[in-house]
Amino acid sequence: MPRKTLRALTALCLLGALPFVVLLPFNHPTVDDFAFAVEVADNGPAGSVASWYDTWSGRYFSFALIAGLHGSGGLGWPYKVLPAVLFAAFWLALTLLLRVIAPAAWLRRRAGLVAGIGAVLCLTAMPSTAQGLYWMAGSVTYTVGTILALLLAALLLAPSGHGRVYRVPAGVFLTVGVVGSNEVLMVYALLLIGAGAVFHQVRRRPGRGLWVVCFCTAALCSIVVLLAPGNSLRLGLFPDGRDIPHTVGRCLLMPWVLFARWSINPALLGLTVLALPLLSKWGRRAAYRPRRRALLVYGLIWYGLLAAGLLPGYWGTGHLMPRRGLNVVYVVHLACWFGFWFLRHSVRPAPAPRSLSRRVAVLATIAVGLGFAGFRHWRHAAWDLAVNVPVHERQVAEREELIREQVAAGRQDLELPEFTHFPFSVCYSPLTQDYVSSWYPRFLGVRSVSIVPRKPPAAVR
To answer: Is the model's pTM score more than 0.85?
Structure first.
């Protein structure tokens, strides 16, 4: 890839990430964050994990991390710092994975740059940045597990002689974290690690022992997740779930909808065009030379992975899972997307240009910029910064002052004005007249909280 193109992509990535960095100070807790804070304050970190396991679900690893964060800083500094830490960790994990699987020294040397481009692509096109990075309850449950999954993939795919002493303990720890983060990753861990273990055993490949150990760990941890008493209580909140025909039908249909929605991103298409010469070069050098029907098999596997990722949501609730869960499925889609093009150019004949013309490279780079800026979240983040954040921050300060005044006056039933502006790029959901988290009054130490319409400013005579 020409240096000018790389420089242009680097500049676009920095510009694409800029609004999300500027929004960090304006991130505020909401909904389930108050429930976690109250549980940790009442029962301590260990007791809160046991309580959530008994009353909500089996996500033991996510619960432990959330309890640790609340125990160390509550809803203060971790809420402002955590999104940046998660994005940096995602970039680092993707860099390590690329260094392991890169078929050329050029990519291994520039794995950090390529991973940065991929991380910004995820940031600007994932189903939800607010639920995936900024909302603590959602990001710790789903994004942390995705990062651990990338690290586990790098460990399993690395040459077996590298760090032999630490491979098994690291693999066990990462598997425990992945399975204990959320049910979507649990399904993926069982399927992918199980398939890898079978493949390595049948082919008698080096490192097969690590694959077997990780699969056995995933199976045991899945039992711990599935046996959680809180699962039955949580599922009782969703009477539309556990419908086999509906679940199967939606899991078979929805992957096509998501594929179409996620694949029209101009940034993804532009990056694919820019990567085609390299994918073609590496494909021709691949030791494995698949037949054309391998593309059909790969497509079916791709489709099956998307359907499998949707299974926990449809089975548990009867509806499409929240966007924070779709973020995980989206990362799998991106991995399958670029894997398909690499496999396509491993099949002979696979005609593709060894280098792109200047015009095509420029047009592809422009498409990347348009995708970053206009496809999903960047323009919403820019609008939040320009319009919503200034008003919202004033209203947050007003609400906090009202809370202090009413609590100081001994009131137990608070009335707080609604927000007229809300930065949805970073904040998951405001408390509204129709919904106030039952944990919010307990968090404030009062009996009840009501959100009332904001009074218009008095007319000046």
So the answer is: yes
